[in-house]
C-alpha cells in the first residue's frame, strides 16, 4: 500500500478542539498537525501546549498543498462556509457539528463530496453514545420488531453551554444544532426523516439572548419540540432544549418502541422489554441491561448511597468506556491508550474513523450523506415552528451508495 501519512490543520483553537489535537497528533496515520485561529494568542497557546506548528490563516491552509485535511472547530453558524471552501480547495474535512446552517449548504457539501470523492466526516459524538449503540444493536437483532415510536433529546441550558457565551451565537434556534438527538435515534432504526412538525417555547425570562429582535436568528425559542415521520413508517420525537437541563446525561435516547419490544432509559437504568410470543396469554420479559450500557466505572459504583445523584451530576460520563463500546475499542491504535477521551468515550472513535477513511480512501459511517440526514430535519423544523407547527417535507439527498 502506497498511502502516505497525513498533514492536518485545525481551524479554530477554542474550548473543544483541545480534546482532539492530541488524538490527531498521536494517530499513526498523521504526519504533522498545524493549528490556526483568528486570535493569534489562541493558536500560540495551542502550539506551546501540544507541540504543534502555527499556520497564520485559513487562506494559507487552503493554499498549502502539503495540508491534506482541514479539521473544523469554528463557530457553528459558519461551518457551511468553512467546509465548502475546504472541499473546493481539495482538502478532506473533519467538522464538528452541525453540518451547516442552511439546507442549501448541506446539499452543496454532499454534492462536493460526490463530485470530488473527498472525505467529509461530521464528528457527532452521540452516534457512539452507549445508548445509541445499544439500540442499533438490539434493532439489528430484531428485538424491537418493526419500529413504531422513539424519543431522543439534548437537554443543555444555554448558560452552561459553550456557544451560550459567544455573542454571535446567542439566541441560536435549538434545532439548528440538532444532531446530538437526531443522530442517535435515526441511526438506531436505520432510517431517515420524511416530514416534520415542530413547536417552540418562547423565552419568558427576559434574557436578551432569545429576544428575536436582538439576535441574528430572529429567534425567540429556547426549546423546540419536533415530531418526525420516518421513511420506515415510524414516528420519532426530538427535543432540543436550551431553557432547561437538570444535569447529566444531557443527550440520550429515552425510549424506543416496536412491534416486538421496547427500550426505556432514565438516569442510570436501561430496560429492555420483549413480548413473549410463546406464553399462552399476554406476557413480557423484562431485562435490565444497565450493566451492559453504562460505563464500567459507573457500574462499579452503583451500590453507593449517592450513586443516582452523582450520575445526575455527570460523574463517570466523560472519559470512561462501557461494555457496549468494548468491541470498538479493539480497533483503536495503541498510541491512543494513554490519552484522554471525552463525551462518553467517543472522541477516539471519531478521530480514528476519519483518519482511516482518508488513508484508505473509503467513506466513513458519519459521511456527508449521514450528516445531512441528521442535520437537515432540524433546519426544516425551525421553519415549521416559525409557521405555527405546520407539517413540512424534509429533502433527502440519499445515502451515498
Residue share in helix: 25-40%
Give the N-terminus to C-terminus distance in angstroms.
25 Å
Q: Hey, roughly how much beta strand do the residues contain? A: 15-25%
> Which fold name fills CATH's third level, the topology of the domain at 127-316 and 380-386?
Dihydrodipicolinate Reductase, domain 2
Number of strands: 15
Output the number of helix runs.
13
Order of helices and strands: EHEHEHEHEHEHEHEEEEEEEHHHHHHE
Give the low-confidence spans: none
- Strand line-up in the sheet with most strands: 14-13-12-11-7-10-9-8-15
The major sheet is characterized as: 9 strands, mixed
Shape: globular
CATH class of the domain at 127-316 and 380-386: Alpha Beta
The CATH superfamily of the domain at 127-316 and 380-386 is identified as Dihydrodipicolinate Reductase, domain 2
| Secondary-structure arrangement, i.e. CATH architecture of the domain at 127-316 and 380-386 | 2-Layer Sandwich
How would you describe this structure in keywords?
401 residues; alpha/beta; Dihydrodipicolinate Reductase, domain 2; nine-stranded mixed sheet; 13 helices; globular
Describe, in plain words, how this protein is organized in 3D:
This protein is an alpha/beta fold. The protein has a domain at 127-316 and 380-386: Dihydrodipicolinate Reductase, domain 2 (2-Layer Sandwich), CATH 3.30.360. It is 30% helix and 22% strand. The protein has helices spanning 21-26, 40-50, 58-63, 79-88, 103-116, 130-140, 179-188, 290-293, 296-300, 307-312, 326-329, 347-360, 368-386; strands spanning 6-11, 30-36, 53-54, 69-72, 92-95, 120-122, 147-155, 193-202, 221-230, 235-241, 251-258, 261-266, 269-275, 284-288, 392-393. It has a 9-stranded mixed β-sheet with strand order 14-13-12-11-7-10-9-8-15. Helix 4 (79-88) links the parallel strand 4 and strand 5. Helix 7 packs across helix 13. The radius of gyration is 21 Å and the shape is globular. The relative contact order is 0.16.
Amino acid at each position: 500500500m502506497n498511502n502516505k501519512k497525513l498533514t492536518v490543520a485545525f481551524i479554530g483553537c477554542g474550548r473543544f478542539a483541545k480534546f482532539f489535537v492530541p488524538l490527531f497528533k498521536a494517530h499513526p496515520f498523521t504526519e504533522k498537525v498545524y493549528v490556526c485561529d483568528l486570535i493569534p494568542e489562541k493558536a500560540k497557546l495551542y502550539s506551546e501546549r501540544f507541540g504543534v506548528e502555527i499556520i497564520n490563516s485559513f487562506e494559507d491552509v487552503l493554499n498549502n498543498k502539503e495540508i491534506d485535511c482541514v479539521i473544523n472547530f469554528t463557530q457553528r453558524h459558519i461551518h457551511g462556509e468553512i467546509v465548502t471552501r475546504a472541499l473546493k480547495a481539495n482538502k478532506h474535512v473533519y467538522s464538528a457539528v452541525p453540518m451547516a446552517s442552511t439546507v442549501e449548504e448541506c446539499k452543496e457539501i454532499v454534492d462536493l463530496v460526490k463530485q470530488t470523492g473527498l472525505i467529509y466526516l461530521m464528528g457527532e459524538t452521540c452516534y457512539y453514545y452507549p445508548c445509541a449503540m445499544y439500540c442499533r444493536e438490539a434493532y439489528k437483532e430484531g428485538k424491537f420488531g418493526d419500529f413504531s415510536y422513539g424519543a431522543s433529546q439534548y437537554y443543555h441550558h444555554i448558560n452552561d453551554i459553550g456557544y451560550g457565551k459567544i455573542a454571535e451565537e446567542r439566541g441560536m434556534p435549538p434545532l439548528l444544532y440538532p444532531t446530538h438527538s437526531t443522530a442517535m435515534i435515526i441511526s438506531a432504526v436505520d432510517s431517515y426523516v420524511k416530514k416534520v412538525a415542530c413547536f417552540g417555547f418562547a423565552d419568558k425570562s427576559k434574557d436578551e439572548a432569545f429576544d428575536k429582535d436582538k439576535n441574528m436568528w430572529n429567534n425567540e425559542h429556547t426549546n423546540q419540540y419536533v415530531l418526525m415521520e420516518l421513511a420506515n413508517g415510524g414516528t420519532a420525537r426530538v427535543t432540543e432544549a436550551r431553557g432547561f437541563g437538570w444535569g447529566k446525561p444531557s443527550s440520550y435516547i429515552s425510549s424506543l418502541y416496536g412491534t416486538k419490544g421496547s427500550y426505556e432509559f432514565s438516569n442510570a437504568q436501561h430496560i429492555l422489554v420483549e413480548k413473549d410470543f410463546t406464553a399462552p396469554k399476554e406476557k413480557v420479559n423484562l431485562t435490565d441491561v444497565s450493566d451492559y450500557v453504562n460505563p464500567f466505572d459507573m457500574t462499579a459504583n452503583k451500590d453507593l448511597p449517592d450513586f443516582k445523584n452523582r450520575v445526575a451530576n455527570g460523574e463517570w460520563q466523560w472519559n470512561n468506556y462501557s461494555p457496549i463500546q468494548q468491541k470498538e475499542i479493539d480497533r483503536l491504535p495503541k498510541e491512543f491508550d494513554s490519552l484522554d477521551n471525552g463525551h462518553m468515550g467517543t472522541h477516539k472513535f471519531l478521530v480514528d474513523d476519519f483518519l482511516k477513511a482518508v488513508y484508505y480512501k473509503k467513506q466513513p459511517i458519519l459521511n456527508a450523506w449521514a450528516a445531512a440526514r441528521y442535520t437537515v430535519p432540524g433546519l426544516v423544523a425551525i421553519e415549521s415552528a416559525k409557521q405555527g407547527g405546520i407539517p413540512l417535507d424534509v429533502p433527502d439527498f440519499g445515502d451515498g451508495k
